[in-house]
Design brief:
Order of helices and strands: EHEEEEHEEHHHHEHEHEHEEEEEHEHH
Strand order of the largest sheet: 7-6-12-13-14-11-15
Number of helices: 12
CATH topology of the largest domain: Rossmann fold
Helix content: 25-40%
Largest sheet: 7 strands, mixed
Bound molecules: flavin-adenine dinucleotide, uridine-5'-diphosphate
Amino acid sequence: TTPLPDLVIVGAGLFGLTIAERCAEELGLRVLILERRHHLGGNAYSERDPETNVEVHKYGAHLFHTSNERVWEYANRFTSFTDYRHKVFGKYQGQVYSLPLNLALINQFFGKSHTPDEARALIAEQASEFDTASASNLEEKAISLIGRPLYEAFIKGYTGKQWQTDPTELSADIITRLPVRYTFQNGWFSDTYEGLPTEGYTAWLSKMADHPNIEVRLETDFFAVADDYKGKVPIVYTGPVDEYFGNSEGRLSWRTVDLEESVVDTDDFQGTGVVNYNDGDVPYTRIIEFKHFHPEREKTHLPGKSVIVHEYSRFAEEGDEPYYPVNTADDRAKLLKYRDLAAAEPMVLFGGRLGTYKYLDMHMAIGSALSMYDNKLKPHFAEGAELKSGGIDA
Ligand code: FAD
Ligand code: UDP
């Protein structure tokens, strides 16, 4: 029989890879990662399209951005980043606008030029219909922030498609802060650091696992081999928390996205990486054109062709990829029960997007894994502290 590893990690996404790298590199532990897909990297995985040589993000467009110095320094140990700055445009009734809501969009939408002060006054007047503090649903909150005309053009249709739910039925806190920029600045993110991994996501993520103490076992479902490890060796589990407990408290609800990929016969389909479709009656939410994420690779792409993806959002059924937690009151009640179960599960730590039922950006997944390493794994393995699950955050 093969000796047990020091630590088993379920899931080779950014959370699991960060834990594995730290434990192998800094503590010298022998780490086994079990991954049920045929590749590592989790949802950040990408591959070159064989026909066009364009890098395609297989689980939806992934843009790296962070203001966390430690996460930025850590990520840069495994890859450099390009100087790509993400921009998003929105199509509405045959016109294309520059998002997020900014002075260019306001001027174009209302058909006249406004100074920043004039635009502020205009939006304040249009937003006076509802009070932000007492807004009881997403629609009221959005109108209280940006006014009804901009809400109806850019939020109502898009949000309805994204959530398959009328915005008056959605919680106000989905749109906690809907920024309007009274400048022409149209960068999508406001973080200190931003860029795409120079050699692609898969090169980055593979490098994290490239260590003699780390073994990645692909196409291996943890539940098929759980008896070999449960209770025998510490486990960091980054799969869905409800699945771990056999859905005993009911399934947590997720949204999934159908990604319809196609190769089109043109050098340039839309002139930019992401165009949102804000009209409610267009069935998809947005179109991604991947080559625009790497303009520096232009010469390596097959001329005359481009890879695009139409995104369609819907509720996830059993067997679909869980992408975004829906997080209804019912889900939150179930999550509290799973949290108690997780806290009582010996030698298992729950982490990552699926393990905590939280939407985590990549930098948050890395940051949260570094915290778990500092606060739980390192004290246990280096100082003999008891391994306390502490459950999952609700
Ligand atoms: P995951 O990447 O989901 O990895 C979990 C892994 O566990 C998976 O590989 C899964 O196969 C495996 N697994 C689950 N159960 C088992 C089991 N029983 N046995 C074995 N293996 C198992 N973040 C950004 O910063 N910028 C973006 O632009 C961005 N865009 C996104 C777009 C979409 C559509 C989605 C869904 C996410 C996006 N993210 C983005 C978030 C990013 O994908 C997450 O931060 C990241 O995936 C979190 O890593 P993770 O390790 O927690 O989870
Ligand atoms: N949203 C919108 N119109 C847009 C873009 C976003 O109404 O053009 C709203 C929508 O409710 C969405 C939320 O803002 O769910 C977050 O949008 P983002 O593009 O950040 O979502 P993600 O990329 O995570 O799907």
